[in-house]
């Protein structure tokens, strides 16, 4: 078997990690045992939770820095309400690099999170993609310095 370079190995790891996003990795048999119900009953309950919109999806929580994303920011956005806050939020949410979008009370109108490979690429993303959305009046990025907990998981250092 031919050796894979570190660069190709890193890219493969990145692809695998991204592919795992949204995949169901839950061991339902173990959960059924833990909650003391049959596997078929658990399947029915999970399906019901999904159909009712209580379970939104399944995903792998990624350590973005180890995948080459060295810069992150929380974007505080003020928008033109005449353009529709919900409309602008949906446009921002449709951008693959954006992880989360929230409408909040007071100022700002919206808050979003984004990761990029470098500060320069993050700056370009904000200036070329976010700031140019019709209705976005102001973007104030808060640079993330360190993550201690993400999606309920403590980050190992």
Write the layout of secondary structure elements.
Layout: H1 6-20, H2 28-35, H3 39-51, E1 71-79, H4 85-93, E2 98-103, E3 110-116, H5 119-130, E4 136-143, E5 149-150, E6 153-154
Antiparallel strand pairs: 1-3, 1-4, 2-3, 5-6
Helix pairs in contact: 2-3
Kindly summarize this structure in a few lines.
The longest helix is centred in the N-terminal third of the chain and has 15 residues, at 6-20.
Give an overview of the whole structure.
By secondary structure, this protein is of the alpha+beta class. The chain folds into 2 domains: 6-51, Orthogonal Bundle (Arc Repressor Mutant, subunit A); 69-150, Lrp/AsnC effector binding domain/regulation of amino acid metabolism (RAM) domain (Alpha-Beta Plaits, 2-Layer Sandwich), CATH 3.30.70. 36% of the residues lie in helices and 22% in strands. The protein has 5 helices and 6 strands; from the N terminus they run αααβαββαβββ. The strands form 2 sheets. The chain has a 4-stranded antiparallel sheet with strand order 2-3-1-4. A two-stranded antiparallel sheet has the order 5-6. Strand 5 and strand 6 form a beta hairpin. Helix 2 (28-35) packs across helix 3 (39-51). It is extended and about 55 Å long.
